[in-house]
Design a protein that fits this description.
By secondary structure, this protein is mainly beta. The two termini are 26 Å apart. The chain contains two helices and 19 strands. The longest helix is centred in the first third of the chain and has 5 residues, at 30-34. It folds into three domains: 11-39, no CATH class; 42-65 and 181-278, Sandwich (Jelly Rolls); 75-173.
Amino acid sequence: MSKIIPKYDDYELIGRTRMDADIAMANSDPMLISRRLVDGAQAVRKFGAAMGIGTSLVPIATSQVYRTPTTAASLELVSDSNDDTSPSGSGALSVEVIGIADWSVGEVSETVAMNGTTAVALSTSFLRVYRMKVATSGTYASSTAPSHNSVITLRETGDGDEWASMNSTSGFGLGQSEIAASSIATGKIGIMSKASVFVEASKTATVVFFERPNADIIVAPFDVMRSKLTIHNIEGGFNADPIVPYGPFVGPCDIGWMGAATSQTANISASYTMVIFDA
């Protein structure tokens, strides 16, 4: 049976449900999805890096954690620099925190005005945080002047457990967290099309891509956190570009990379690209 593929400027047709067989190919076009021209589909790119990972598996993230509490936690933001003070500082004036506060509601975000080395409480309690970024800065950034030059930490209220951080590399603030993990809300389905891992030179490591389904079930018996891709003794790097994408990852669920050095310690970075569809 022949299929009618809409022209790229035929936005009405492109917006029809992806389940329509006549336009299924157009609705899986990565360029259209990236441009947000396909209804109910969103491209997500996640990346993370962890320095000095030991021989036990940990999330590949700057903080080497990905918090997954069963009840929402109260959080606060703090910097190690008073340059990150709103409204007149030269660094990060505000920071956006992105994650899930209620599985049935989906992704939420909150933007917080920074107060330097004094912690500022978030008004939203979160179940998961998979991204944070500098929202506004007191510096017009350039290759020699970063938007911030500090470590900004998200932690539980009252100087509690760390959830995430934004760091500087060689004295240059990254403006973005590095967390190679994420969560998918109820009513969403994720498909992973590409993934990559890189290990510090002259080191080897084991990396595992995990899924934990039905993350909203908080009374035993629980669904199992299971490896979806395991690579042992990586040296250098690894790229996954499967003909058939990994998944589906049905929300509510947690997914992401964990890594461990074969011996001593290793720096490991990882990334993956997903499309999240309405279920």
